[in-house]
Amino acid sequence: MCGIVGFVEASARSEEEFQAVARAMSDRIQHRGPDSSGVWLTQIPGDSTLVFGHRRLSIIDTSPLGNQPMQSGSGRYTITYNGEIYNFRSLQDELRRAGHTFRGGSDTEVLLAAIEEWGLDRALERSVGMFAFGLWDDAEEALYLVRDRLGIKPLYYAQFGGAFVFGSELQAIAAHPGFQSTIDQEALGLYFRYLCVPAPYSILQGIEKVSPGELIEYRPQERTLSHKKFWDLTQVTFRGATNHFQGTQEEALDELERLILDAVDGRMESDVPLGALLSGGIDSTAVVSAMAERSNGSPLRTFSVGSDDPTQDESVAAARIAAHLGTEHTELVVTGRQALDVVPLLPTMYDEPFADSSQVPTYLVSKLAREHVTVALSGDGGDEQFCGYERYALGERTWPRIKAIPRPLRGIVGATLRHVPLGAWDPVTTVATKLGLIGDRAGRTGQSVHTLGHLLKCRDPFDMWREIVSIWRKPEKLTGRPHVVWPLDADIDHETLGVAESMMLMDGLSYLPDDVLTKVDRASMNVSLEVRVPLLDHRLVEFTSSLPIEYRRIGDTTKVLLRDFVHRRVPPQLVDQPKRGFSVSLGDWLRGPLRDWAEPLLEVSALESAGLRPDTVRSVWRQHQSGSRNWEHELWTVLMFQGWRTESLVAPTRV
Q1: Does residue 3 contact residue 86 with C-beta atoms inside 8 Å?
Q2: C-alpha distance from residue 24 to each of 10, 133, 166, 173 (Å)
Q3: pLDDT (tens digit, 9 = 90+) per residue, 233-280?
């Protein structure tokens, strides 16, 4: 895994100055590639200079023959590349038969040969992997930026001061001399709503993300950009929904088994120590059990973190699964103090505001694994494919009932519920709790009623998904500015897909790449650990998209087929446990040990300088401190934004 940078610029800089700029940019992301660095440049027509920079984390062919930027055999193509092509050995064999020779053993060299032999489009179609790269085609005088199908690896780009610039992270782009930063207000509103900044936005105006499965072509002479999709999850989902798998559940399980084992096989290719992240849940157990089956007797290392709070600790379950599979298991039981110590690191680790609090345990398990291995496999992607989140069941239960109510009537009822003050429900909660009708829901009943009020106004399952995942439903209350609701095309035929499939698609388009995979990428690459995600092999995703919903969830049983895969390898009693997981106690922390850290970030002057409305934030803060409301997630978005503004290398000092 690596870090990449590049730029096209028409200026009077000397060759040494161009190289110095590229090094300054790549040095900002040295954590992504601590093993070596490289710079390549060329003059292109129109008096411009193209410069590529690279930071390498050596995984496949650790010799200098794998260093980058790298040119193809003919010299036509040059690449700066971040990722892994897992089927590179079979591609290499085919390319050898076609007459290609190879200097070294890296997948980068194979990718270049594939592009020479078949062209970029066909090479991408045939490549199985995760990647983000910049490619120069000297014959066409075109620069291409490419990001993998599911968005596992990041890539940003921008045009400013006559330069076209790209990089793995924002802070690399910020090191270019022409960089100027202004917060994108639309992106800021999306962040407060969704905990992250969804593609194609970035938090900074004028800088965008390459979207998953996208290929961008930049023509330096004309200064033109064109975009196209080489793989589209929406199309894949609709193909699957209209061409369901026709076999039995047992036949579907056999095919799933074949695909998972093949995906794991490819991702176990490594010239450096390799292990796996094991939480004890279905997804990670599926991956680790497949790895154990394919390890050919060599010891398999697994890693997990647990909490000293037994209500949040899955480390015991993970240890039992590891013992059953015979792995060499390492676990770290984390105290609240250790978790708290991570919080000040987060704004610099995520060079955009990012407020998914599971970033803390993700960093801790990555740090633990990196002490022993350089590559780790994880189980990310299972929930989004196998109907694992509770919101899917909620949507399927709720939407038919809401849809049955005439829209004018449900609009009136929803508006009424939303306009009843949250505190008005407290007496109802208190009485119901004393009577034993409900558990302790201090400060939450009103929020639940307001959520129902918002759901009643929904027009379709997409609206419902958005309402369920939104943190600040009206970011304008924070910023005083109107905001876009959603950056993607939401024109989806929900009748064809069904409620759960629609919501899984929306998660796959945004929550997965912009939250889950961003969290894993930044946390792991901060400690120079490469994380691979076999459940997001695109061939597996194409297959699961074709599965009838009952193969994914039956009643309260989620991940039906994936669970069956695991049960072939692990006794059900070891994995069929209530999901707990290591989560951070945000609400308690903000009232206790994090209060002194948070208070200066939430002072009136600090909020005003950030362009946020102090009256809104201070009111929420007071309610949370009093215990009358639980605003932990809303407050965390504000605190992570404020921390980012204070600590980040790319944040402007004032909004």
Answers
A1: no
A2: 19, 19, 13, 10
A3: 999 999 999 999 999 999 999 999 999 999 999 999 999 999 999 998
Pairing of strands 530-532, 328-334: unpaired
**Domains 2-231 and 235-387+511-575 alike in fold:** no
Weakest-pLDDT range from 94-98, 152-156, 498-502, 540-544: 498-502
Q: How far apart are CA 89 and CA 266, in angstroms?
A: 9
Residue 335 CA to residue 364 CA, distance in Å, equals: 11
**DSSP label at residue 507:** I
Rounded to an integer, what distance in angstroms lies between the CA atom of residue 299 and that of residue 284?
18
The predicted pLDDT at position 198 comes to: 95
| Active-site residue list | 2
CATH class of 2-231: alpha beta
CA distance 255 to 246: 12
Which residues contact residue 408 at a Cβ distance below 8 angstroms, ignoring those fewer than 6 apart?
A: none
Torsion sign, CA atoms 612, 618, 624, 630: negative
**C-alpha 564: how far from chain center:** 27
**8 A C-beta contact, residue 39 and residue 16:** no
Question: Does the domain made of 235-387+511-575 have the CATH classification 3.40.50.620?
Answer: yes
Q: What percent of the chain has pLDDT over 70?
A: 92
